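Module 6 notes. Inverse folding takes a fixed backbone as the condition and produces residue identities as the prediction. Think of it as a translation problem where the source language is geometry and the target language is the twenty amino acids. Below is one complete input and output pair. Work through it position by position during the lab.
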């Protein structure tokens, strides 16, 4: 019986090794191949990540795979990252975790990572470990989508959200975000909160 278990164990490990070689695995972040990674962080650690980007303009995009407007705008964050490179640090902050005890943040990891990989989001990606309602409270927003732009010193320049939009035409787009980011990169903007 022990021998059969040992043989099974060795066969299983060999099969896993072949699987890892033959099947493409989710990639690590930030190498030359442009791979995607997803970290699960609380709000305090996310703020530390933002602070670690001093010297760059930071764009933090709060979104969720259950938010159609978020997913519609997300490709523009990727475009911004590609266009402005080293001058801008893009960070995506997924609010997919709802706080359910039966569905911890790790439950959402695969779904979020699949979306990020499809989008080519080769920048810092965070899945919040804070339930979405608590995250919205910490961000001081009623809901998502929301984008926060920080200057090179880490000071919040502007929060883009749709809390005051009277209609769909009044909602922000990445055209608005990009205009501010380009000015911030050039040093032409002051805090607008």
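Target side of the pair, the amino acids:
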């Amino acid at each position: 019986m022990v021998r059969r278990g040992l043989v099974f164990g060795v066969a299983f490990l060999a099969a896993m090794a072949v699987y890892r070689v033959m099947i493409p695995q989710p990639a690590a972040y930030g190498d030359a191949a442009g791979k995607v990674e997803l970290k699960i962080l609380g709000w305090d650690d996310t703020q530390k990540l933002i602070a670690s980007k001093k010297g760059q303009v930071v764009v933090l995009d709060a979104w969720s795979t259950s938010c159609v407007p978020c997913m519609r705008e997300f490709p523009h964050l990727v475009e911004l990252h590609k266009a402005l490179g080293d001058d801008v640090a893009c960070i995506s902050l997924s609010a997919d975790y709802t706080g359910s005890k039966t569905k911890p943040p790790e439950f959402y990891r695969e779904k979020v990572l699949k979306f990020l990989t499809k989008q080519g989001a080769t920048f810092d990606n965070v899945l919040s470990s804070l339930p979405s309602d608590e995250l919205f409270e910490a961000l001081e927003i009623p809901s998502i989508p929301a984008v926060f732009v920080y200057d090179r010193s880490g000071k919040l320049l502007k929060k883009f959200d749709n809390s005051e939009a009277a209609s769909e035409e009044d909602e922000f787009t990445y055209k608005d975000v990009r205009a501010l980011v380009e000015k911030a990169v050039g040093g032409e903007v002051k805090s607008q909160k």
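Reference fact for the lab report: The chain has one domain: 27-185.
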